[in-house]
Design goal:
The protein is mainly alpha-helical. The chain has three domains: 3-57, Molybdopterin biosynthesis moea protein, domain 2, CATH 3.90.105; 65-121, no CATH class; 142-415, Hypothetical protein af1432, CATH 1.10.3210.10. Helix content is 56%, strand content 3%. The chain has helices at 36-44, 70-83, 92-105, 111-119, 127-130, 142-152, 157-167, 173-181, 184-194, 208-215, 217-231, 243-263, 269-278, 281-289, 291-301, 308-316, 320-330, 335-342, 353-368, 384-390, 397-415; strands at 3-5, 19-20, 26-28, 49-51. Strands 1-4 form a two-stranded antiparallel ribbon. The protein has a two-stranded antiparallel sheet with strand order 2-3. A hairpin with a 5-residue loop joins strand 2 (19-20) and strand 3. The two termini are 22 Å apart.
Length: 422
């Protein structure tokens, strides 16, 4: 854990230890994402250094391609070429994320294991050339899907109470704690989450009322919404991915979105976490309401060079992002979440284009690192204009990826005790 001078610390870095004044006053807890405002506060208080999460926390994992066994490197390079095929290989961000993907895939692999992983790949570069395009099989009306989902009444009553609480600016912390406490399972999950290093509180948060007070009313209500929505989809078909895989990908996307928003000093970084958590909810809806059509799309996207969202357009005539956005609108969730979910593949078309670009970039990074799965076996195409609008440097990606992986493992360990290393 490197100790850096304040002038060396950049927004978006994460504290590895509590930050206190010389008198012992707590300024920031361990795990906090540093912003420009935090750095200004440090200078006011005369703080000259802080301990930051860094490379030495990577448990001895390689940080350079030169450290890899040549045979392992060759196999992982081919896997990366297959996985990033939808993206231009010359783009600096694509190159850097491909490098980070190779480093992550190569961890602990022997040449034999790497070779087996490569041979087990489902992708066949000849598919697009030897097979005619498959015709559309199931045109899906997004509006009808949403109406069917509403008729299923799949979400518990607690969801609607939480949603109303979020929209009411006069909602008190005590009322939020009372509403959430009615659902024992949800309460337990939220307490587990706020006690992970993701939030970095120095002492255990043992009651919902304290959690609401410390985390914030709107923040905890947003978390409750995200957790309750995904938890409502237990029992979906798991032929192409498991709900646990889906959770990991969603959590990873949410964490990266939160980290990016923090670096960009965008207001309400918790909302970005929830938007990332819910970005693929449309896929779960389709899996439940149109299982056969969803399975056909997932099967086609498992091979060849077509992105999952492109196959959805061809087969369904719409995408999971559109369905997810419409569903959030019918659930009367905040417009912010609706727009970012609806446009996480089309950020430049969104009314909140820069905010949508954050979730789009987070989804790209989460897919690049191959943590979890929502059904897509290829890294979706990066919208380079959206990426450019954020102003995130290529050099920041390794740090963002390391922070996100650690935080995702912490959260998954809270929800799935056997998931310490995702």
């Amino acid at each position: 854990m490197p100790k850096l001078k304040i002038d060396e610390i950049e927004p978006g870095m994460v504290l590895a230890e509590d930050l206190t004044t010389t008198e012992g006053r707590m300024l920031l807890p361990r795990g906090a994402v540093i912003t420009e405002a935090h750095l200004r506060t440090c200078r006011v208080w005369g703080i000259v250094s802080a301990v930051i999460q860094g490379d030495d926390e990577d448990d001895g994992y390689p940080t350079s391609l030169d450290q890899l066994d040549p045979e392992v490197l060759d196999s992982c390079k081919i896997m990366a070429a297959q996985r990033f095929v939808l993206n231009p290989s010359s783009h600096p961000v694509v190159q850097e994320m491909a490098r980070l993907y190779i480093l992550r895939q190569a961890r602990g692999l022997s040449p034999e294991q790497a070779s087996w992983m490569l041979s087990a790949s489902t992708h066949d570069d000849n598919v697009d050339f030897l097979s005619p395009a498959e015709p559309s099989r199931t045109q899906i009306d997004p509006g009808r899907v949403v109406r069917q989902e509403m008729e299923l009444a799949s979400l518990p009553d607690i969801f609607h109470q939480i949603s109303e609480a979020l929209k009411n600016p006069r909602t008190s912390a005590a009322y939020v704690a009372e509403v959430i406490s009615k659902d024992v399972s949800l309460s337990a999950k939220l307490l587990k989450m706020v006690n992970t290093p993701f939030y970095g509180f120095p002492s255990e948060i043992d009651t919902l009322s304290r959690a609401v007070t410390i985390v914030g009313t709107n923040q905890l209500v947003s978390l409750a919404l995200g957790v309750s929505v995904i938890s409502a989809f237990d029992g979906i078909p798991e032929k192409f991915f498991t709900l646990k895989d889906f959770w990991l990908h969603s959590v990873m996307c949410g964490i990266v979105a939160r980290l990016l928003a923090g670096r960009l000093e965008m207001e309400g970084d918790e909302r970005f976490f929830v938007a990332g958590l819910l970005h693929d909810i449309g896929r779960l809806i389709i899996l439940r309401s149109h299982t056969e059509a969803a399975t056909e799309v997932l099967r086609q996207a498992t091979v060849g060079r077509k992105g999952l969202v492109d196959v959805e357009k061809e087969v369904w005539g719409c995408t999971h992002a559109e369905i997810g956005g419409r569903m959030l609108k019918h659930w009367r969730l905040p417009a912010f979440l609706e727009v970012l979910v609806h446009h996480h593949h089309t950020p430049t078309e969104a009314s909140m284009a820069r905010e949508a670009a954050v979730v789009h970039a987070a989804d790209f990074i989460a897919h690049s690192l191959a943590m979890g799965s929502s059904g897509a076996s290829l890294v979706p195409e990066l919208n380079t204009n959206a990426w450019q609008s954020l102003g995130i440097k290529k050099s920041e990606l390794a740090d963002i990826s390391r922070q996100a992986e650690r935080q995702a493992n912490d959260i998954m360990a809270a929800f799935f005790p056997d998931s310490r290393e995702a």
